[in-house]
Amino acid sequence: MRVIGMMSGTSYDAVDAAAAELTLTGDTLALRPLGMVSAGYPPALRAALAAALPPAATTLHEVCRLDTGIGRAFADVAVRADRELCGGRADLVVSHGQTVYHWVERGRVHGTLQLGAPAWIAEATGRTVVSDLRTRDVAAGGQGAPLVSLVDVLWLRGRPGRPVALNLGGIANVTVATGPAGPVAFDTGPGNALVDAAVRLVTGGARDVDEDGVLAARGRVDPALLRRLLAEPYYAAPAPKTTGKELFHGEYLRAALAAHGAPVAAEDLVATVTRLTAETVAGAVRGLGGTEVVSSGGGVRNPTLTAMLRAALGRIPLRVSDELGLPAAAKEAYAFAVLGFLTILGLPGTVPGCTGARHARVLGSVTPGAHGLRLPQPAPAPPVRLDVLPPRR
What we know:
Elements: E1 2-8, E2 15-25, E3 28-39, H1 43-52, H2 60-86, E4 92-105, E5 108-115, H3 118-125, E6 129-131, H4 135-139, H5 149-156, E7 163-168, E8 171-176, E9 184-190, H6 193-202, H7 214-218, H8 223-230, H9 250-260, H10 266-287, E10 292-296, H11 303-313, E11 318-320, H12 331-344, H13 352-355, E12 365-367, E13 385-388
Parallel strand pairs: 1-4, 3-13, 4-6, 7-10, 10-11
Antiparallel strand pairs: 1-2, 2-3, 4-5, 6-12, 7-8, 8-9
């Protein structure tokens, strides 16, 4: 099947769509990348989304407007992906949507909300859409994240040692494919979330990303502030665990600075929270006994963060997922393409040891395309490995 996976992460900077040819033969799932297209949200929609996210208050009126606006933005990118990457012959679209709230209390996830009504995608493309992938795992007692852990396990379990997959999005997460207790995955804490929050704070909202890590590179880490930030209880909580911008947001950073008391220069603040990401990721990798790290996500484009992470990892090698065939910028979108493909085949899309769910479950809801709902024959058994094939020449 030609499957389009769609994703907008916690940084909500763009809608990404990656297309793949997916084939299940016996116990092996083969993925051949077909490419990626991406588009930023319209400025008014992005501003409305930013204004509605925690810790801000919002209204049901605004939630409805966002659900429609995000759905239509995803639909526009899906049409492009079908035309440009699949020659107008996509079989399926899988939409993660936009996470706006992840309800966590005392380490337990009670609910999760992703906006972007899939009907807009189905109507615009005529393709069947799989969406709302996280909720079923939560209902089964899981964290609803990191859902990409299944793909990481299938992809990396054959490599020597104990490889760790790392996604450096707004929130960073890791998956170790093998270990004494089997596969394990969890959110390590902020990836780019506090870096972005720091940049917005020091620029008065004029910028919201540290482009190429320039500000952090100019700054010096404030050791006392870093110690205060590292004292966050989340880091010591046991896995499985998940977090989001419900915890790591601009007001969280303001409160830490107020408690710190001493003034911190703009570049030093960005450098300190960048080091925080590197230290918390490296600590998680060491705790898992990782022997190599395969990284992806927007954070790999930040050379200052990458350098700090390499230093924090020491002798543990840090690689980019492109080296293993999956483009770092599109890896999550490809992962959701795989999860939706498994859903259509009636196969589970989770690893209970990674999300904490009681059982592995088939994920998501299905919205029929223009020609009704035509499902393939259910597959007899789930895959145990993922082979990434080279792009066609």
